[in-house]
C-alpha cells in the first residue's frame, strides 16, 4: 500500500490527515510515518493493523477497503467518489442495532409487560364521581335586620354575609373533620368488603366490622376521608357561584355512594345550623315579646290612671303635655309589640319549612371508567422511555466493547 492510499483512508475514515494522528492510531512514532511518506510505501504489518481498526469502527465499505489493502500489495489508488461522513455514521449505528436487535426489542417488550401487570394487578384503581351544586343564599338574620330597620337601626354587617349559606364556606365545611367523622361511621356496600360495611373499615382494608378503633387510627382515617373529597369553586360571570364536588374510591358504585352520603351530611349540618339559628331567633323574639307585653300593659294602666286622676286636662297645658308623653310611649310599645308578634309568626312558619342551603344541579353518577392509573399515558411513556434506554444500552455496550478490543489489540501488537 502506498502512503497516498493510507493518507486517503485516514482522511475519509477517521477525519484526519495529520502525520501525528496517523502515528497515534497505528501506535508508531511520527518519524516512522514520515519515512513512509518519503518512501511512499507502508509495511504489510501496519496494513493489517489498519484493517483491524477499520473493521472495528465499521465505517468503510468492505469493497473499497479490500481493493486498497488486499494482501498488502502496493499500487495506484483507485479513483472513487467522495462519501460523506454521515453515511459512515449511519452504517456504524445500523450495524450496532442490527447486532443487538433482540436487546432493542426485548427491553421495550419486557417494560410494556411490567407496565400492564402493574396497571391491572398491582396499582389500586381510582374512580371519581362528580356532582354540581348551586348554593342558595338564605340568611336567617334577615328578619331581625328588617325588624331593626323599622326602628331606624342598621345591623347589617359583615357577619351577615359569611354564614353556612355562603359559597366560600362550602369547601371548608365539606373537608371538615365533622363531616369526615360522620362518614367514617356510615355503612356502604362494597364488592370487595361486602354489604353494610363502615367506611373506616374500607379505607383501612379491614374486614372486621366489630373492630374497636383507637383514637390515633380514627384521626388518620379522618385525614384519609378528607383527601377523598375534592371541592372546586366555580365563579361565573353573572355573579353566581357553583360548586363541583367529587369523591374518589377504588370502586365506581362506592365512589357514587360516598358522594351521596357526603351531600346528605352536608344537608344535615346546614339544616341543624338553620334550626339552631331559628331557635335562637325565636327565643330572642319570645323574650322581647314578653317584656314588651309587660311594658305595654304598664303603659296602658298608666294612661288609664292618669285620665282617672285628671278629668279636666284641657285647661292645663302641663297635664296635656304629660298625656302626650304617655300616649307617645304607648304608641311605640304598640308598634314594637305588633312587629315582634309578626316576626314571631314568621319564625314559626320558617321553623316548619324545609329550605335547603343548596340545590343539586347535577346529581352524582356511577363513573364509567377509572380515572387513574391512566393506562394509555403510562404505556406511551413506557414505550418512549424503554426504547430510549434500549438504544442507550446498545450504544454504550458497543462503544465500550470497541474501545476494549482496540486497546487489547494494540497491546498485543
Number of strands: 6
Helix content: 55-70%
* Oligomeric state as shown: single chain
Largest sheet: 4 strands, antiparallel
Helix-strand category: alpha+beta
SS field, number of helical segments: 15
Q: Provide the β-strand percentage band.
A: 5-15%
User: Any idea what the shape is?
Assistant: elongated
Polypeptide structure, described:
63% of the residues lie in helices and 9% in strands. It is of the alpha+beta class. A four-stranded antiparallel beta sheet has the order 4-5-1-6. A hairpin with a 5-residue loop joins strand 4 (229-235) and strand 5. Helix 2 packs across helix 3, helix 4 packs antiparallel against helix 15 (375-412) and helix 7 packs antiparallel against helix 15 (375-412). Mean pLDDT is 79; it is low at 58-82, 139-144 and 150-162.
Amino acid at each position: 500500500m502506498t502512503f497516498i492510499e493510507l493518507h486517503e483512508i485516514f482522511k475519509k475514515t477517521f477525519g484526519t490527515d495529520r502525520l501525528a494522528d496517523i502515528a497515534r492510531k497505528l501506535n508508531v512514532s511520527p518519524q516512522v510515518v514520515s519515512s513512509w511518506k518519503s518512501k511512499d510505501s507502508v509495511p504489510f504489518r501496519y496494513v493489517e493493523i489498519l484493517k483491524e481498526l477499520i473493521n472495528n469502527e465499521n465505517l468503510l465499505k468492505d469493497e473499497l477497503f479490500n481493493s486498497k489493502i488486499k494482501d498488502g500489495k502496493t499500487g495506484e489508488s483507485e479513483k472513487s467518489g467522495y462519501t460523506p461522513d454521515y453515511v459512515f455514521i449511519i452504517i456504524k449505528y445500523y450495524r450496532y442495532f442490527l447486532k443487538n436487535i433482540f436487546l432493542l426489542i426485548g427491553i421495550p417488550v419486557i417494560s410494556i409487560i411490567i407496565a400492564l401487570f402493574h396497571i391491572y394487578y398491582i396499582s389500586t384503581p381510582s374512580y371519581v364521581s362528580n356532582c354540581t351544586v348551586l348554593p342558595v343564599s338564605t340568611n336567617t338574620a334577615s328578619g331581625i335586620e328588617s325588624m331593626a330597620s323599622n326602628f331606624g337601626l342598621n345591623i347589617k354587617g359583615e357577619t351577615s354575609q359569611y354564614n353556612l349559606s355562603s359559597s366560600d364556606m362550602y369547601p371548608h365545611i365539606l373537608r371538615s373533620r365533622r363531616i369526615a367523622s360522620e362518614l367514617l361511621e356510615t355503612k356502604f356496600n362494597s364488592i370487595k368488603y361486602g354489604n353494610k360495611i363502615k367506611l373506616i373499615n374500607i379505607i383501612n382494608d379491614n374486614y372486621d366490622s366489630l373492630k374497636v378503633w383507637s383514637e390515633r387510627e380514627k384521626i388518620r382515617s379522618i385525614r384519609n376521608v378528607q383527601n377523598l373529597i375534592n371541592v372546586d369553586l366555580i365563579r361565573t360571570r353573572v355573579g353566581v357561584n357553583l360548586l363541583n364536588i367529587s369523591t374518589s374510591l377504588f370502586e365506581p358504585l362506592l365512589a357514587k355512594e360516598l358522594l351521596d352520603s357526603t351531600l346528605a351530611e352536608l344537608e344535615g349540618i346546614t339544616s341543624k345550623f338553620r334550626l339552631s339559628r331559628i331557635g335562637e331567633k325565636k327565643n330572642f323574639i319570645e323574650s322581647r315579646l314578653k317584656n314588651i307585653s309587660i311594658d305595654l300593659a304598664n303603659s296602658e294602666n298608666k294612661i288609664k290612671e292618669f285620665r282617672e286622676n285628671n278629668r279636666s286636662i284641657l285647661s292645663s297645658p302641663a297635664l296635656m303635655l304629660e298625656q302626650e308623653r304617655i300616649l307617645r310611649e304607648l304608641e311605640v310599645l304598640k308598634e314594637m309589640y305588633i312587629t315582634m308578634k309578626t316576626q314571631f309568626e314568621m319564625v314559626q312558619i320558617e321553623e316548619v319549612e324545609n329550605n335547603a342551603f343548596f340545590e343539586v344541579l347535577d346529581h352524582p353518577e356511577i363513573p364509567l371508567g377509572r380515572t387513574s392509573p391512566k393506562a394509555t399515558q403510562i404505556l406511551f411513556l413506557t414505550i418512549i422511555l424503554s426504547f430510549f434506554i434500549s438504544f442507550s444500552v446498545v450504544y454504550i455496550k458497543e462503544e465500550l466493547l470497541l474501545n476494549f478490543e482496540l486497546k487489547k489489540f494494540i497491546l498485543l501488537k
